[in-house]
Amino acid sequence: MPWFNTITTGRMNGMGLVGIEDIRAAAKRIDGIVLRTGLLPCEWSTPDRPLWIKPESFQAIGAFKVRGAANALAELSEAERVNGVVAYSSGNHAQAVAHAARAAGITATIVIDDTAPSTKVEATRALGAEVVLVPLARRQQVAEDLAARRSAALIPPFDHPAVIAGQGTIGLEIAEDLPDVELVLVPVSGGGLASGTGVAIKALCPAATVIGVEPELAGDAAASLAAGHRVHWPSDQRVRTIADGLRAEPSELTFAHLSAVLDGIVTVSEQEIRSAVATLARRSGLVAEPAGAVTTAAYLYRQADLPAGRTVAVLSGRNIDPNLFVEILSQ
Amino acid sequence: MPWFNTITTGRMNGMGLVGIEDIRAAAKRIDGIVLRTGLLPCEWSTPDRPLWIKPESFQAIGAFKVRGAANALAELSEAERVNGVVAYSSGNHAQAVAHAARAAGITATIVIDDTAPSTKVEATRALGAEVVLVPLARRQQVAEDLAARRSAALIPPFDHPAVIAGQGTIGLEIAEDLPDVELVLVPVSGGGLASGTGVAIKALCPAATVIGVEPELAGDAAASLAAGHRVHWPSDQRVRTIADGLRAEPSELTFAHLSAVLDGIVTVSEQEIRSAVATLARRSGLVAEPAGAVTTAAYLYRQADLPAGRTVAVLSGRNIDPNLFVEILSQ
User: What is the mean pLDDT of residues B10-29?
Assistant: First the structure.
């Protein structure tokens, strides 16, 4: 994992996990680069389970990923900054790194698979990044080779303490805005968001329950937590879900965090995800991508599995395919 | 105008207009009832005109109207509260009064025309209000008769100082959040929102320009400002616009405010309004009704008529017809 060599790791607690002090430090570093989102109350929620949405959809680039990217870049040394950074992604992480690098005055190179939609490629270029298009199978290798050749830091989407700590600022803000929160629902994919958010909530609101949410069709983390060790689902299974932001699987590092801080993971069906996208648009005026809507789906359809009380659902991003959005709203 | 008899008017300035002190008092009264919205930065705006959206779409009932209604109800005497309140509307004002009345523990009766969509009737009932369905032509008369018979206060949608002062809290919040704002864009219909917002901005940010925005097809206020007196457009002209929230015309009271505080009014075409609805959804993750999107349309398509600089566009509401929203997003 080359990035462990090129990025200074944050201070860790005794178990080797990211701690609340790492997240507090991240909050200071990304202040002014990342939007401080509030909590939106949902008047359509039920009285015994008042719901607030944490709308990370309003971040520049439309997703929470900019938090972790900005924190990872802020930890680079002056020598590392000069060499620029490299990332590989076809999703929100590509634009997050490009955005954070531009804000930090660092050169970014993003390796994208050549089957990605041209809109994503153009959006990444528009943020000032160099884009390298390669076949999907070679994406990671090309990125690692590029980083090695340039002595550039490779910024991973989730498998790094600095990225986890950056995403954890979401939990910090929830605790500041609603200190008596009783339930936090957070999407799980690679696990950076759920790890960081869980660490912050467990440290600051120890009485609160933290539940991860996955699509049933990409329920590998739920299966892993149940088994007590990482269970691998083949990618051809995970890609079945419309929640394209939730098709990754946890790393050893994020799985260790998830095991420590999550009280459980619930899964939701594709139809429930679609219904949640529609509910967020019609009743809260929010555009959500399927990955961002899974927590609202859990709120709507998994109440039997969830404690009642003041609930926060993290809406992780808004970058839904326009045709899918129309299709869902037409149903 | 029966409501002048039954609601205590706020303190006015020498010209008989609502002043900044009325708006400050309103902010205190509606605190805790109305959402304190922030400003959302738009990374897609041009560098010389950075744009922030004031998302009133996140208010309970999905529109700013709850501010004015809550302030008008807060000004009622104990004797008046006992008799309940009456309003007539087929739009956001009906639900705003119902919502504010429920929050204040006051009985609300809303007179709605019997051709209004059943969803609006049900939504108003769901907020605990009694709904009286009558033919559109008899709506105002029935409401006034009901109010007189019950000695109940009639809450108007815009033609009252307490309502104007309540809407003015939007300007107060903009001035708090972005004290060096240079341009504020605000929709104009009956004129309560633009009056209140303009009063607050001119008092707190005197260097800022305040521009009203109307649909070309309901450009009566623009014509009135140009003429220096109220110009009446027949309602069969005003109803042509898809911006159903902007089909009213200013009263004597609001026109006096608009003349005093607006630096001008620009108009936008139906196609420009549709395009702005799509831009807000695709690039900012916000659902806007056409009336709420006119300010973004002005930002996008009237830059030649507007000063450059830090710009705030008031997004007044999200209650778009679902079929229209799909139609716009499909284009």
Answer: 82
Residue A202: active-site member = no
Locate the chain B residue with the closest alpha carbon to A38. B38
As beta bridge partners, residue B30 has: none
Domain boundary among B154, B189, B217: B154
B76 with B210, same domain: the answer is no
Residue B244, token pair as written in the block:
């159903």
Determine, for residues B329 and A322 on separate chains, whether the beta-carbon distance falls below 8 Å: yes
Supply the CATH number for residue B298's domain: 3.40.50.1100
Q: Are residues B139 and B201 in the same domain?
A: no
In terms of domains, do B164 and B278 share one?
A: yes
Q: Are residues B115 and B50 in the same domain?
A: no
Does residue B9 have a pLDDT over 60?
A: no
3-state secondary structure at position B286:
strand
Does residue A314 share a domain with residue A246?
yes
**In chain B, which ranges are continuous DSSP H helix?**
3-6, 20-30, 65-74, 78-83, 92-104, 118-126, 139-150, 161-177, 192-204, 220-227, 235-238, 252-261, 270-284, 290-301, 322-330
Give the end of a domain, one of A132, A154, A176.
A154
Among A54, A65, A120, A202, the one annotated catalytic? A65
Please write the tens of the pLDDT for every residue from B37-77: 999 999 999 999 999 999 999 999 999 999 999 999 999 99
Whole domain around residue B43: which residue ranges? 3-64+160-330
Which ipTM value was assigned to this complex? 0.92
Whether the CB-CB separation of B101 and B73 falls below 8 Å is answered with yes
- Which chain A residues are within 8 Å of B282, Cβ to Cβ? 287, 322
Nearest-CA distance A39 → chain B (Å)? 10
**Residues A149, A29 share a domain:** no
- What b/e string do you get for B44-64 counting C-beta neighbours within 10 Å, with b at 16 or more? ebeeebbbbbbbbbbbbbbbb
**Which chain A positions have a beta carbon within 8 Å of B43's beta carbon?**
60-61
Give how many domains chain A has, as a whole number.
2
Catalytic residue among B45, B57, B65, B251: B65
Contact A58 B284 (CB under 8 A): yes
Residues A258-283 have pLDDT tens digits of: 999 999 999 999 999 999 999 999 99
Residues A38, A184 share a domain: yes
Tokens of B8: 């205590």
User: A38–B38: do the CB atoms touch at under 8 Å?
Assistant: yes
| A265: in domain | yes
* B60 neighbourhood in chain A, CB within 8 Å: 41, 43
B322 contact residues in A (CB cutoff 8 A): 282, 329
In a domain, A2, yes or no: no
CB contact under 8 A, B288 and A284: no
Question: Residue A5 pLDDT more than 70?
Answer: no
A103 and A216 assigned to the same domain: no
* Residue B316 among the catalytic residues: yes
